[in-house]
Specification:
Layout lengths: L3 H26 L13 H4 L5 H6 L4 H8 L9 H18 L3 E8 L6 H7 L4 H12 L12 E9 L2 E12 L2 E7 L5 E7 L3 E10 L4 H8 L3 H11 L14 E10 L5 E14 L2 E9 L5 E4 L19 E4 L2 E4 L6 E4 L2 E4 L5 E3 L4 E8 L5 E6 L4 E11 L8 E2 L4 E5 L9 E8 L2 E3 L14 H23 L6 E2 L3 E2 L2
Helix pairs in contact: 1-5, 6-7
Length: 478
């Protein structure tokens, strides 16, 4: 993009060229001899006459021929010539003040406010302040980040510049515009463009853990979290998943007009291939707006409690008698421990009501959820709780209730998870959860037709043949 100096220089150079050409024409038109074989008004006075022979040899320009035919002028330019010169100068001044619209792109530097960026771009301090105030009225300026591009539209008259407006896109779905009103005030507008929902397909080979393979393959984090929750009722990710197993997934996500993916993704279909066994799950939306996942037989995977209320954790200690790592003697371990890094989300194992949240002795920061009049679960040694969580809150299965920590009597970051039936601790890995609902009759017939459509769509999107959808190439995750 040309620099501001170039923008200013160009009209001035053009005007200067016009002036030179115009003055030359007026001087010639006024009758001064430029090519008549002598310099100045009189040859004798100058004493620098070119001989007739030399003059005959020299090929004279066309201007000289025209001058020969006109009467010689020996004085100053005529009044007519001076008037023409003044008119030309007036015309040149008008040309130099003709409005010119230009654009300039600037970036917000680290540590700068919007005002600083506009002032550095050459805007008057009062204008920069008005624009910042206008933008603040429609958008939180604290969300602007270093590197944010701003396009300025400027009207230039000579060396004078007026800001007509500006545009910027601080978020994938948000555009901000500022325009100058007829009264000279700056007005901001926030334009939100909803993302287009598109479907993506991916096939991942697992070599280590499912979480690591999906991460390396570039699956969105919330897709991975949803898949873990979907299968946590029937799959022990620590023991059941082996190298060479595969995950197929079809999911939907918003795509902004700039092509970036935005918002949470929704899993439409997933198939976890463990050895020779396949575990396909399909999302079903009911008329009341609720949604659930069902296997190919039309049976829901949602059951009483999650076996693993945490993503990507490893079982570090089982249920039963053990030698306590801190106390040094054998003691009943009334739950199971899952080792994970501090800050890993912890999910509610089932729908219920929060009975306790806070410090609980050796358990450290803990949450207790009552699921019904018989069953409750406990989640201990947390680093912090979910924002706003309090006693009496209703939580849904899979909802984040806290984060892994090392509080209380603990030797390292982990989740201690207990299940109590009639207030008696039972092995969480052997609890027989209640079976969920099944699809029957016409619902089952519709479901089976939907399964065929989803299978076809998955193959088409994966191969890149599905119109309006995007393919994510199959990925082999080492």
């Amino acid at each position: 993009m040309p620099s501001p100096l170039l923008f200013r220089a160009r009209p001035i150079i053009q005007v200067q060229a016009l002036l030179v050409a115009g003055i030359m024409a007026i001087l010639v038109g006024g009758g001064l001899h430029l090519w008549q074989g002598h310099y100045g008004p009189g040859a004798d006075e100058a004493g620098a006459m070119i001989s007739a022979t030399e003059a005959d040899v020299v090929e004279r320009p066309v201007v000289a021929e025209a001058a020969d035919e006109a009467p010689a002028t020996t004085g100053a330019p005529t009044q007519t010539a001076l008037a023409g010169l003044r008119q030309l100068m007036d015309t040149a001044e008008a040309i130099s003040l003709r409005p010119e619209t230009v654009t300039r792109v600037v970036e917000i530097e680290a540590g700068d406010a919007l005002y600083d960026t506009l002032a550095a771009a050459g805007l008057d301090a009062a204008v920069a302040s008005q624009v910042q105030t206008a933008v603040r009225s429609v958008y939180d300026l604290r969300k602007l980040r270093a590197g944010q591009e701003i396009t300025l539209t400027i009207t230039r008259r000579g060396v004078e510049e007026t800001l007509d407006g500006l545009t910027l896109q601080p978020e994938a779905t948000v555009d901000l515009t500022v325009t100058r009103s007829a009264e000279g005030q700056y007005v901001a507008q926030r334009i939100i463009t909803p993302p287009e929902r598109r479907r993506f397909a991916q096939s991942v080979t697992i070599q280590g853990s499912l979480i690591a393979a999906a991460d390396k393959a570039g699956l969105p984090r919330n897709v991975v979290a949803n898949i873990v929750r979907m299968y946590s009722h029937q799959v022990d990710f620590q023991r059941d998943v082996k190298a060479g197993d595969r995950l197929d997934v079809l999911y939907e996500q918003g795509v902004a007009k700039n092509g970036s993916r935005v918002g949470e993704a929704t899993v439409i279909f997933a198939n976890l291939r463990l050895g020779r066994a396949t575990h396909p799950l399909y999302r079903v939306i009911f008329r009341d707006g609720s949604a659930d996942y069902f296997n190919e037989r039309g049976q829901t995977v949602r059951r009483g409690l999650l076996r693993t209320p945490i993503d990507g954790a490893r079982l570090t200690s089982g249920f039963g008698m053990r030698r306590h790592p801190i106390l040094g003697y054998s003691k009943m371990h009334t739950g199971v421990d899952f080792g994970a890094s501090i800050g890993t989300p912890i999910f509610a194992a089932g729908d219920g009501v929060v009975k306790e949240v806070g410090w609980k002795g050796a358990y450290g920061r803990a949450v207790v959820i009552r699921h019904n009049d018989k069953i409750s679960t406990l989640y201990a040694h947390q680093s912090r709780f979910a924002k706003g969580l309090k006693v009496g809150d209703r939580v849904k299965q899979g909802e984040v209730i806290g984060y892994v920590g090392n509080s209380g009597r603990s030797t390292g970051p982990h989740l201690h998870y207990e299940v109590r039936v009639n207030n008696k601790a039972v092995n969480p890995l052997k609890v027989s959860p209640n079976t969920g609902r099944s699809l029957n009759g016409t619902l089952l017939v519709e479901f089976r037709r939907g399964v065929d459509r989803i299978q076809r769509e998955f193959r088409l999107v994966l191969s890149g043949q599905q119109p309006g959808s995007a393919k994510v190439a199959a990925t082999e995750a080492p």
